[in-house]
Every structure is written in structure tokens, then in C-alpha cells.
Amino acid sequence: MEFTQTLQAYMEVGFLGLCGVLVCIMFYLFVKRSHQKEDEKDKNSQTKDNIIQQGFTSLMDFMKEQFKEQNKQQMDNNKLLLNAIISGVTNHVPSQEENTKLTNVSTEINNHLQQILLTTNASRANLVQYHNGGRGVNKQSFLKMSITNEQVQLGVKPFISEFKDQFRNLLAYFVQQLDEKGYCYIEDRELLKDKDISTYEFLKDRGIEAKFGMAVRDNNGMVIGFVSVEYLDKSNADAHIIDKVFKEQQKVFETLLNL
């Protein structure tokens, strides 16, 4: 429902209340006139009291019904207004300015990933962002992640289209280290066999011999994703160079993702 229709519904509620007041006034005049007639006929006071009591009872019943109807209409309009607000939020279409901003940020991220890829001599460099993927039967949120930006060396298969809506526990050890320390350096995947078989199998199935990650945090200090470099040949990895590059680039990525 459009906001104008919702506001119109609120106006109808006010009109309903006005009608109720007019009816009350008319009823009062009717009772008053009845009293005058009874006085003219010189009825006894008991008859007058009965008329007043009956009139008062009828008036109270009428007002209760009016209040009940008005309250119901008000609740219905509140629901309509809330639905209109929710619809406006969930169906938000980015403006031209927002689209331009998002495009510029994504381009800047890709440029920095390309720089990291070349400086560290990695096979891949990518940005993974965390997100919720819905709720399960226990009402708890699914914790998921997706590659949103990636740069690869010539001849290396990209993973950006494959790594979408992945559960974070797929890389449990990697994600945990990022959350606790801010970095995770796996210089040899074979060292993971006794730590996290899930992460080990993930790397092995994709031919990744070494993987290095750097946490990206929001303005509140919460990890919202990570930048990683991967090596199909671990001998190409130099932990000292990677560490230097990560420390130089960490604030850059956090600034870009918090714009």
C-alpha cells in the first residue's frame, strides 16, 4: 500500500471519531427533549431518573462500540503503515549516486588486490566478505561468506564464482585465527592435518599448498571478512613480504569497506 493510502486510512479514523461525537450530541439533545416533555406532563421524579439512566446506559454502550471500532481501525492502519515502511526498506533501489560509489569502491578494491597479487607473487588474491545466509529451524543465523573480489595470475583458475554462500566453518581454523589474532598464515597445508581436517581437505581439493589471510574489521572492531593470498606452489610464498604487504593494506581495505 502507498503512503498516501495509509494516511488516508488514518484520516478515515478521525472522521469516524467525529461521527461518533455528532451522534452523542444528537442523543443528548434527544434525552434533554424527552426530559422537557416529561416535565410538561408532570411525570414523577422516578420516571425521570429511569429515562436518564436508560439514556446514560445507551450512551455508554454506543461509546464503547465506537471506541472498539476506532481501536480496531487504528490497529489495522498501524499494520498497513508498518508494512509500507518495511516494503520501502527491503525494496530499496540504489540511486545513481550509490551505484557510482559502489562501482568506484569495487574498482579500488580490485586495484589493491592486483597490487597484492604481484607484490607477494601469489597465485590468487581475493576479498571474502561475511554475511548471514538465513536462519535454521532453531532460529539461529547461518554464518556464511563469499568471495566478492578476486585477482589471479595468468593461467590460474578463479574461485569467485565457486566460493559463494559458503559456511564459515568450512574454514573453521582459518576463520578462528583471523578472529582471535587478525592474521592466519598457513605456510604448508600438511600442517593442518592435526588441527582442522576440514580446512586441510578444502585446500587439498583445490590444489592450494599455502594460504595467508588478513582480517578486515568494521568501525566497531568486528571482523567482517578477510583478504587472502593463495599459492599453488608454496615455495613461491615469502611470509615476511606477505606480512609487510598485509600491514600496509589492512587499513586501506577497512576504509574502503566502511565507506
Would you give an account of this structure?
This protein is of the alpha+beta class. Strands 3-2-1-6-5-4 form a six-stranded antiparallel β-sheet. The protein is elongated. It has six helices and six strands. It folds into two domains: 3-90; 97-257, GAF domain (Beta-Lactamase, 2-Layer Sandwich). The protein has helices at residues 3-40, 45-90, 96-120, 172-181, 197-205, 239-257; strands at 124-135, 141-152, 166-167, 183-186, 210-217, 223-231.
Main attributes of the structure:
Beta-Lactamase, 57% helix, 6 strands, 6 helices, alpha+beta, 2 domains, six-stranded antiparallel sheet, 18% strand, 259 residues, elongated
Query: Structural class given helices, strands, pairing?
Result: alpha+beta
Along the chain, the helix and strand elements come as HHHEEEHEHEEH
Q: CATH superfamily of the largest domain, called what? A: GAF domain
Strand content: 15-25%
| Helix-residue proportion | 55-70%
Global shape: elongated
Number of domains: 2
Overall radius of gyration: 35 Å
- End-to-end Cα distance: 33 Å
CATH C-level category of the largest domain = Alpha Beta
Mean pLDDT, as a whole number? 79
- Helix segment count? 6
- Across the major sheet, the strand order is 3-2-1-6-5-4
Please name the CATH topology of the largest domain: Beta-Lactamase
Q: List the uncertain runs.
A: 78-91
Query: Would you identify the CATH architecture of the largest domain?
Result: 2-Layer Sandwich
Largest sheet: 6 strands, antiparallel
Task: State the total count of DSSP E strands.
Answer: 6
